[in-house]
Structure formats: structure tokens, C-alpha cells
User: Fold these one by one.
Assistant:
Number 1:
Amino acid sequence: MSFETRPLTAKPRTGAGKGFARRTRAAGLVPAVVYGPHLEKPINIAVDAKETKAAIQTPKKLNTVLGLNLEGKQITVLLKEFQLDPVSKELLHVDFIDVRENEQVKVKVPLILTGKPEGVTNGGILSQIRREVEVWALPAAIPEKIEADVTALKIGGSLHINEVKLPSGVKVKTAVNFTIAVVTAPEVEKVAEPVAAAPGAAAPGAPAAADAKAGEAKPGDAKAAAAAPAKDAKAAPAKK
């Protein structure tokens, strides 16, 4: 397997601090550092911002293997982390990790679902749980992406990482067989049922009954009853 790198010129950096960093950026350079298990100590460098962005404009993006040319010495690296200005989006700082041709490195690779699930054909909904996966691979074997076929998924079915066919030389080191995608049943919209009226109750909007039921008081009945004397009441005897 050939081991190709994208060239990137680097300069040694001796200064530090915010003032030095501002002057470095004003010159079109970005403060950077190279670290790794094979280095005695991190190497402070400066790289051209535009060249750095151009160097990773490949299908592998951040997983592009770079060849840093530092004063005639080439260091093979991967761009591990970077900081951007929140407003201008310009590079503020870059971290590179030193890699070796015959040693696997840990990187994150985009995860792409392929095929139309059987469950989706039957009305289900496909949900992708993971959009990238962390893998181990030799620098030259780092894939652009990992594809996962979901054609056989039925409603209620799910796909896990252990079921995905990985490219040659690529491994996933995890004790958890995590879920990548699921197909769920569509939500059924519930229609509110009309509330049944209680026995004897008038239906909403129905006119009132012509005659009130016996025993039901009408407006004004109480006053009339209080004013009228009782039919069978006897006259009270006069006091002597």
C-alpha cells in the first residue's frame, strides 16, 4: 500500500503568549504544535493558514495525511484539532499528531447509510443514530467514509456497529455494540371521539323542554310561595 502525504511547509516557533500569537497571525501564519508518543517533547511550529486549509481539501478532510517540511526534515502528521475565530472563522491554532506508516491511529470517519429499508417502503421512518464512527487504521488505510447497508431493516428493526462490514485494515475497538440506525413505525394521529351525553341530559344546542319536570322550581316560584298564605293554615289566636 502506497503511503502518500500532502506537503505542508512549517517554520520553527520559539515565542509564546497572546502578543506573539497575534504577530504570527498578522504575518499570515498560524501557531501550531506537533505531539506524539515518538517525540521527546512537543514541537512548536507555525504554518501558513491558507496552505493548511488547502492541504486538507481532499475527500478525507481532517484525516488527510500531511508531510510537514520543517527545515528540510519531513514529519508525517494528521491534523488532530484546530481553533477558529468565532466571527471571522480564521484559523487561530492547530494541533498535529505525529504518525508512523506501520502504526494504527485512531480517527473519526463519516458513517453513510446506503439502500432503502424495507420498513420505510412499508411506511416506517428511518433514523440515523450515529453519523460518524471512531476507528483504528494505518495512516494509508484510513477510509474516506464507512458505508452501512440498511436495506434489510424492517419496521422495529435496528442496525448495530458489529453488523457493519468495515473496509480492510479498519477496526472498531469498543465493548459496546452501539446502535447506528433504526426504523420506527409512523405515529398514528388520534381522532377525538365525541363525549356521550348522560342519560336524560339534553344534547348540546338542543331547545329546552316545553314543560319543566315536576319538582323543578321555576324562576319566581320561591317569591310567590313566600307571599301566598298556606291553604290549610289556621288563624293564630289573638292575645288577651
Note: Helices lie at 18-26, 49-55, 118-121, 221-227.
Number 2:
Amino acid sequence: MPLNEGHEGFEEELGEALRRTGDGFAADNRSELVTGGLNRGRRRLLRRRATAVTGSVLAFAVIGVGGVYGGDLLGSGGAAQGASVAGPAPTKGPGESAGDKPVPADKGGMEAQIPVAEMAAVLKANTPAGDWTVTDENGRGQHVAAVYDDGKGPAAVSVGLYRAGEGGEAGEGQVTCPDETYVPHDSCTSEKLPGGDRLMVFQGYEYPDRRVDTKNWRAVLLTKDGFLIDASEYNAAAEKGSPVSRTDPPFTPSQLKSLVTAAGWRPLLEQLPVNKIEQGGPGADTAPPEADGAAVQATLRSLLPKGLTVVSKGGDSAFAYVVVNDGKGKSLVEINVQNGMGDVAGELFGSGATTLPDGRLVKVTQRPGEKGGAGVVWWTADTLTKDGFRVVVSAFNTGAQHADATRAEPALTTEQLKAIALSPKWTKFATR
């Protein structure tokens, strides 16, 4: 979900596009991505990520789904799951800013037509008394946004209603706490409620690098019958671009829990349409199968140069990371393996790329970090076979991209990154 903050404009644009069109990525195992529509959404996101990263990648990676709610393309968790081309995308987390918001399950690209006033009524009835200014209260959709003021400062509050998709694991990424390597936060709990629903309550920040002190607290409920209720609040009048108005968002974690578990949402959830196209009907297409996360992680560790101590690790599906230390400071190393990327070869491998005798394209880049950490550098080796199988490895001179540099250079040289990316061990993940 989470890849580099220099892509913040891209990420914000992408986040909005995800809300509108049902592309996305959230956090958790990619096994929860389901059927044609999700595959198409994931495919589009991979392409978009690949293109955007050539220029300057994607958290919290975070992170949403295509037409129905699913897990991670990108978080953490989050996981949530970015590059010189794209560096790997973090996959644990509710999104780059504590949450890539859920994506509507719609018909033909249209949102559900629930009266916003009805959603606002449930929101107001299940929160403490205060003054509310509701956006588009006369409209229809499946999301309500408002500014709440209890006399301690205005705060943005929003609630979205979504379908989680098909399959027993669909939506679990949205109720899984993010990986702190990519999504620093003050607190996060995830629990299974007595009736079988699952709940995550997250207390974090709008920006991982804390460039401003806007806090984002969020509660997400995944019901046992596959609906999601996602509530977010801020200590400012808007998610972005407004000054902090109070120390904390207005509602406590227990109040957020009461909000998303309120019975008043049930009649509204039942108005959510089922997107037949996204369930694999006419018009659905497919995405390349994804790698096994545990195997990607093990392969990456097996290829690390000697003398490095792995101090933490994570990721899932086609993404994995390790934080290593050679005695000179922590260094984050990330990898993505992706099939079906041949059609974006021209966007990924332009100037500076070389072609090996076997036809593989290789591009090595060095650039400043883009997630706000002071002095961070970002080195990448990107490779693509003639069959469209891509392996991209990145290393940083810090243990987390949003944290300040811990050393002068990454623990791996660009030649070592290139050797990892070109290793024949990755061929087992390529589709035939």
C-alpha cells in the first residue's frame, strides 16, 4: 500500500482516482484480491505505478481495490502495501496517510445512490453532540464527509460504506494494522468481535514524515457478511491543506468503534449494489498471477551479500523488504517481482537502460529519497525480461524512507542491487 513521498502528488491523485474508479490498493495478503474487476484494478495500478515512478512510487500503502474491497497492491496492512522506475511498494497499512480509502462497489462505474442525508443522520446519532457542516447533504453516494466542531476546534470527519468482495479473506487487509516501517503511528489495534466482525482502530498521521502535525485516526469494520464501514477523523478542518485546529481528533478510539459498529449503518449497507462486471462477468479481464510472499522474502534474503544482519523484514505477495545493518547503520532494501509488465517497457526503460545479450532490459538509478527523511538517497536496479517479467530492487541509506539517513550510502552498492535483480533465482516466479 506506500512508494516515495516525492510521489505525493501522484499518490493524492491516485487516491482520488481510486475513489472514483475503483482502482486501489490496501493492506494485507494479495490472496484477497478477487475476480476480474479486482485483477483489472490491480493491473491498472501496477501500470500507473510503473509509469509514475519512472519520473520521480506508491502505502499505507496502501493500499483499496477495484470495484470491490480487496487487499494490497501496494499498504501495508497499509500493507500498503514505489521508483527510477518503481521501487517496491509497501504493502502493510491502510494507506500512505493512514489510509488509502476504500473503493466503492459500483455498477458501471457509478457509486451507490444512498442519500447523503441518511448517512449523515447515522453519523450524528452515533457521535457526541456538536456542530456539523455536512458536504453535499442533499446528494447521493456511499460516502459522507463533514466538519465537526465540539467547541474545541473544527475537525474533518468522513464515513464510507463499501462491499468487501467475494471470498473469505476479502477486505481483511483493511482491518490489519500497518507495518511501521512504512506507516509510523502511535497506536493500532485489530480484533475479532464476538459476532464475527473484524475491527481495526488506527491512530496515526496524515503524512508519515510528520511534515505537518495533522493526525488521522481511523476505524474500519469488516462485517462477517462482507461489508466495510470506514470512518476517519482529523485534528484539522480538512484532511490536507488546513492548519491543525486541535491537539487530537475529536472522537476517542472507543467512540470510533461505537460509530462503525452502530446498527444504523445496516439498512444503508444493504443498498450497496453488486458490481457484476467486477465479479467476473462480461467485460472482466485478468491480471498476471502474483508471487508467493514468503518465497519472495526468502529469496531476497538468500541473495543478500555477506556481512549484513537482517534486523527486520516484511511485505507480502510480490513485494518484500528487509532492513539490514553492516555495522554502519540501518539500510532498507525493497523488492518487487511483477509479471505482465512488457507493455510498459518503454515507460520504464528509456534513457539510460541497457539490453543484455538475453534480451533483458536493465536500468540502474541513484536519486534523493522522496519521503521526507533528511539526507536519504535511493538506489535502484530495475530489470525486465522479453516476456515481461520485472524484478526491481531498491536500497536506502536509512531503515525507513520517512526517517533521516542513518549512513552515507545504502548498505548495498548499485552493482550488488543489479546482481540481486538479475539472479536466476527469480525465474521461478515468472509465468510461463
Note: Confidence is low (pLDDT under 50) at residues 1-109, 276-285.
Number 3:
Amino acid sequence: MKRLRRITAAVLVTAAVSALLSGCIGDPPEIYYSVPQATERFIQLQEKIDEVISGGATFAPPAAGQNRQSVQLQDLDGDGSNEAIAFFKVQEERPLRIYVFSENGGVFEQRAVIEGEGTSVDSITYTDMNSDGTKEILVGWRMGPTVKMLTMYSVLDFQPVELASTDYSTYTVTDIDRDGDSEALAINKSESDAATATLYNLMSDGEMVSSSAYLSKDTGTVARIMRGRLTDDRAAVFIDSTRAEGGLLTDVFTLDDDGNLKNITIRARDGASTATMRSTAVYCSDINDDGRMDVPFPRTLFQQSETVYYVIDWYDYGSSGRRSIAMTTYHNYSDGWYLVIPEEWGDGITVRREDSQQGERTIVFSRVRKAGTGSEEQTVEDFLKIYTLTGDNKRELSALPGRFQLLARSDAIFAAEIVDAHGIDINEQLIRDNFKIIYSDWSTGAI
């Protein structure tokens, strides 16, 4: 049984290290159906790890975050050679172990061990926080079902030193002061108190300093953390949180003139960023790719039926908390596209959906006008149709008289038709330029 365990451990380490070292592009497909072949140096690393396992340890990799392998490679000391970081659990009072093996002359040696309490490692991050050439290690320890502790360690000269520790619900790494060094931003939410955001900044002399600011009260869970810039080019962190009533709100954090963390959207009298509350789950995004994060505000349109449609007004923020509109869009999430609404079209725009023909889904843009002077009645004048065509005859449908193609994919063709301008500044090129596909932004500045 012991030999089987050792062989299994060796295969796991080889697979983990090989996956980290190899780039898949250009590799022949047959290599994915064979056991990875370890080099001599990594066979020696396997032997070191086997020594730990033979003492009763088992692999216990991080459960969350981007770094989840049992064995991870990082150049911690900045010498150009990777250290191997391995995660274990043992039957002792402090059961969690993070081993650091450093390579010297092709030979790995154990250089450091970080011990932790709790049930598992939740996540791990490696980042240089003070430009000394050595990466600090940020470890999230899971203490129980709902309690997590974030501990920041220096591993200078492979001597683990705890720099700071805090309980947290989530955290991110950012450079909010734009000095080239990373800071850790931890969100701590208890059941009784308002959530706080605490920024940890490691000074060049090794001292850790921190500053905190409140998130909006009565918020639920943090849904997304985004990094971006403000209109005055200051770096900021945008935190989208759920609301008990449904929907989202956004707290925007930056640094004040003294370098302390501040929430620029929270209102003192409300204890919340009430101006950013919205009933729909639309997240912050750099919608116009100018480097500034935009906060969305859905706006309901004139209703032509029981179905409610809306456009999204996207706002930029300055460090004083003042906002300015950046763009207005109509998002068709079900068909995967959106249209930038030109400012010249004004506010009197509405939309409706028509799906009367199989394989052809249509969004109709219309202009709303009063029927006449003094009249309360309103008329709706159609001026644009955008089609999502998915049937076998989608190419023929996209080429019908009056229609022009916006984008062709294997599964769908998007086309448009200008029905009647009705005095609106509109042409084919404008629609082509303003038509966009909705892409997933899994890792673009977000957690």
C-alpha cells in the first residue's frame, strides 16, 4: 500500500509540474494520452515530496482562486529560477502545511514551511508588495464553514514572517496608489456590522500599514470586484454587491490625498451608495474600452406591452464622487448582442421584440412622439430592426431587400434594416459601428 501511494504521488507531482511547465500550443495530440515523463530534476523533487507524504501527509491544494494545483511553481526570490510550493494536510494541532522547495544546481531542497490552522487552504496569491524583488505569499485559511482568515507572509531569505492577518469574505490584489507595488484589499463582512474594506500596504522597510472604509450597509454578498480608473485618472476598485431587496449596488473605492482608503459613492446620511442602486443584475464594466470603469444604470423605456424593456446609461466617476455619462446601450442578452445608442437619438426611444417567424428574432427600435400639440396620446414610429437569424435559410433571410449584414457566425447571422429614419440621424455604417457582441468577461479585472 505504501508503494502504491508513493507511485500515485509521483504521478500527481509529475502531472502538476509538467502542466505548469509545458505550453500546449503545437504539442502533438498523442502526448495527452500518455503518462507525463518527468525530467531528472523533477524526479528528485518527487522524492522530496514523497518524504513528506511518507510521514503521513496528504495533498491539500487550495480550493478557490486561480492557483489550485497541489504543486505550484513560482519564482519567489526573483533569481529567475522557480521554487516549488506544495500543499499538505497532516494529523497535528496545526494541520495545514505549505512547503517551499528551492532549486540549487538542479537539486531541490526544502527551504521553508508555513503552518496554518483550519480545515483547508481556501486560496493563495503570490505578489511583490514592496519592490524588494521577493514575492509575498497571501494565504486564505478556511477556519470553518463561514469563517476565513487572510494571512500575509514575507518569505525573504526563505524565512516565513507573518506580516498581517484578518478575517475576510473575499479579497483582491491591486495597485490602487499606482506606485508599481501590489496592495491587498480585504472585504470583511460580519452578520452584525457593516462590511468594511481594508487596504494593506507593505512599506519598503517591511512595515505593513492599513486603512479601512465602509461598504454600503445592508448589502448581501460581494458579487464582483473590478479594478479600473476614474475620470481624473486615479486608480479605483469597484465592488458590486447584492441587495436584500434584489439587484445590485456599487461601492467605489480610491485613495484620498493622504493615501487613505475612501468610499467615494457612499452617502453619510444613508450609509449606502444609494445613487448606484439598481434593480437589475448588471455589473460594472469598461463598456467603451477607454480604461475607465463604468457604472450601469438601467432606464425603463416607454412600454408598448406588458413586457418592460430598458436601456443602460453608463456613468464614469471622478474622485470627488461626481459622475458623468459615458454611453447609453441597449443590451439584448438573450441573443448575445448590444447596440450603442447615439446621443443624437435623444431619450424618446423605445424597443419591442417580434419573434413571429421561425429562425428569425427581431428587435424593433422606435421613436415615441406625442400625437399633437396638447395631446396626451403618443405615437410610435419604427425606424430600425435588428435580426438574429438562426434557421437553415439564414443567409437568404439576411439578403432580403432592405437588409444589410452586421455579423455572420456559424450559428447565427445578425442583420439590420432601416425602416424609416423619421428625422433620426441614422445610416448603415452607424449601425455597423455601434453593433457589438456581448462577450464573457470572466477574468478582465474581476474576481
Note: The first helix runs from residue 2 to 21.
